[in-house]
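Suppose a colleague, Dr. K., hands you the sequence of a protein chain of 211 amino acids and asks what its three-dimensional shape might be. Before reaching for any lab equipment, you can write down a predicted structure in token form. Begin with the sequence itself:
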Amino acid sequence: MIRVKICGVTDEAAGQAAAEAGADAIGLVFAPSRRRVSREQARRIAAALPPFVTKVGVFVNAPLAEVRALADAVRLDAVQLHGDETAEECAAVAALGVTVIKAVRVAGPLDVSALRALPVAAVLLDTYHRDRRGGTGEPFDRRWATPLAAVKPVILSGGLTPETVAAAIAAVRPFGVDVSSGVETDGRKDPAKMRAFVAAARAVGVGGARR
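The predicted structure, expressed as tokens, is then:
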């Protein structure tokens, strides 16, 4: 079954709505962003979640000590590295005992060999933007993701919406999908859009995903 992560959750109500919609994971952004949350906000959101919803902390080029402190304080299950982190830095975060996801901003064909060798549980593919690390709402050419998805768990992001997620899953057959702006209305998470997104992803994901 396709996994669904709703990223950029900023309050308890949005986290609960994401869980009720059927999301497997929620993303808490600790990097500069309009969706950034403080340690205390993240702890409140995490505490309000039901069991078995994965809590993913999103970091951009953060010092290991900062990642460790927030992972411990919030009890993160996974860490998403969305900056220029090296393979060695990914391994150091994994040694903290959390699942590591490495985000890659896609602007063209991928180096499949290098990405496959990364010491991470999955690679998240997002759209390249010169000034922004994520949440742009812009898609990339899905053909660039397919070769990597055949050999490594891929989490597909970038411009996904309830209307486009099914076609993207069918084209790439990823491990999971990630959405933020695509389930927002006026900059806030929309419960109806989250429900529609999860339903659309699951409808194709049962038979369309490799893993």
